[in-house]
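Page 42, continued from yesterday. The earlier attempt failed because a stray header line got pasted into the input along with the sequence. Redoing it now with the clean sequence only.
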Amino acid sequence: MTEKGVEIAPASGKLGILLVGLGAVSTTFVAGVEAIRKGNAKPIGSLTQMGTIRLGKRTDNNCPKIKDFVPLAGLDDIVFGAWDIFADSAYEAALHAGVLEKSLVEDLREQLDSLKPMEAVFSQNYVKRLNGTNVKNGKNKMELAEQIIKDIADFKAEKGCDRLVIVWAASTEIFLEIGDVHQTIEAFEKGLYDDDAGIAPSMIYAYAAIKSGVPFANGAPNLTVDIPALTKLAEQNGVPICGKDFKTGQTFMKTIIAPGLKSRMLGLEGWYSTNILGNRDGEVLDDPESFKTKEESKLSVLEHILQPDVYPDLYKDFSHVVRINYYPPRGDNKEGWDAIDIFGWLGYKMQIKIDFMCRDSILAAPLCLDLALFMDLAQRAKMKGIQEWLSFYFKAPQTAPGLYPEHDIFIQLMKLKNTLRHLKGEDLITHLGLEYYD
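This time it went through. Structure tokens are written below.
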């Protein structure tokens, strides 16, 4: 060990996980945790539950599970809550989403039926393809934020929770750019009172979470907590925040393939990506303004990984096209096609084709679990503000001002595990092989 590590408060008592949106992702997540708690399934896809971490030299053969190495909340200590624009219970919402087999949902009916969503903050101005009735009313956005703050406090008290985490798993909002209202806490709070159009519902949830001292993770690409005002507020209030837009299907593939091409100094002429998706997310993204939000998140990945300014002979002016098409028959089973045009020695051209027939919510659910548990760990370790070590989970990692985001999934995983080693005072792994020179 290099040092004593960081003092981490124990994960005692109940952890409340509040989900914004009780649709396909959230119900798949909740049902999965309930099935695992009953012993009917395994937490496949969850780094916190199944992943290991190497400590010391390779010859030490010391690789405990992450959940045994750092003090994470146990699955039996999790309590779920949610907001949604539809009043359906988690049971009804899971049946409607159609992700899970009906027999599994029926087996969990008692647990899922007990999760009924609170009224949501919602405006169709920001998600134009949806409209619900389970919606809060208020004279301005500040009053809506205060209602969310009250929901958070009431849930914590009623469920006897010691700690809370909030995860945005709702639909993608329209594209917004950072403006004056987002620059300072004072400007943002004035904007809440003034019903400023630059403040979307997701920002209201993020503000309420941070004011309540609750960590906040954003599973969608909308501009939310990644504005100067809320980043500063999180720092001031000692609240962990992180990136946005769960890295699940096509972008997950890009962050695996692109680092491999770059590591071998193979060039890229173009990368064409298209998706078909038939669930509520696909319907929302059929709106051009919501699609632009998603497009911005997906397009930035290759630029940051390949660094065309550093390697102009290989990556300058490569073509990168992203398309998402709403196709109802496919439901939650998203299909992503990638046509990748590369070149190698002497400029000879080659092609890579990928057809990833994935299940969007099945990939996203374990990310919800990991982020909730790691954000809770961060808060108990007094890690405030942006948690860049959680970039592993996002298409759009949040970084400190002036730093470009790291998108290479292998570097992200190393950073995550080294952060855990640091917290526990263990030597960081650099892969230099210096143990042979002891």
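Notes: The chain has a mean pLDDT of 93.
Reminder to self: strip header lines before submitting.
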